[in-house]
Specification:
The structure is a single chain. The chain is of the alpha/beta class and about 280 residues long. It folds into two domains: about 5-100 and about 220-270, Rossmann fold; about 105-215, Rossmann fold, CATH 3.40.50. About 45% of the residues lie in helices and about 15% in strands. The strands form two sheets. The chain has a six-stranded parallel sheet, sandwiched between helices. The protein has a four-stranded parallel sheet with strand order 6-5-7-8, sandwiched between helices. Helix 1 (about 15-25) packs across helix 11 (about 215-230) and helix 5 (about 105-110) crosses helix 7 (about 130-140). The longest helix is centred in the N-terminal third of the chain and has 17 residues, at about 45-65.
Length: about 280
Amino acid sequence: MKAGPIGIFDSGYGGLTILEGIRKLLPQYDYVYLGDNARAPYGSRSFDVVYEFTRQAVMKLYDMGCRLVILGCNTASAKALRTIQQNDLPLLNDPYFRVLGIIRPTAEVVGTLTNTKHIGIFATEGTIKSNSYTIEISKIYPELKVTGIACPLWVPLIENNEADNEGADYFVKKRVDHIMSIDPHIDTLVLGCTHYPLLYKKIRKYVPDHIKIMSQGSYVAQSLQNYLERHATLQALCSQHGTCTYYTTENAERFQESAKIFLHADIQVEHICLE
């Protein structure tokens, strides 16, 4: 069986923060990044629509030779991962193709960071409504109290390159104050959307000093490394030439320009159709 790249999928640009974290720890592998920017954002879409869009992307990455796909998107992980794993992968009759999400790796770590046992989640409307974080965390750490709030304006701020501007302060402070008023005992905040690390400095500014802020990239990367070490056959099917290619369902030049916000580097991007 031929080795292939690791696929990273996101509805837009946020998954680039996951890709960056993974490539820092595991630079030897080949990667394909696929952003469904033409249909982003996924955050407010229904479960059925998110599942169908995500399924199309996963199957496209499979057709491109990927043996492992990471859903570098919290909304897709929350609304589509389980259905794809249970319903779609068995139909391929290919035991060496896997799809993983990013909520479980985050949930596995968060309990080790908190002292008060009170956790806060900032995420999209879709991720919050799915209760995925609360469910996954309670499986591992049933003693933790989890409070999640949706931050619908944060992604547009970031994608319009406003994250460092003064206007962002109002919207960040409003959500920080809101979650701390609901549960003042929170001592760990999870950035449960892959865009949100770009607002880290603003969030840090309004969060009390003793509170930890958890970005997902490095934790997901560590989880992936552990996963590959436990699955030697799959690891051998992930090619290792240190390459990375980028695809978008939107205009390639537009993606190239916007990706600079996340990667601080020039990349080559190709347009791709999923339907």
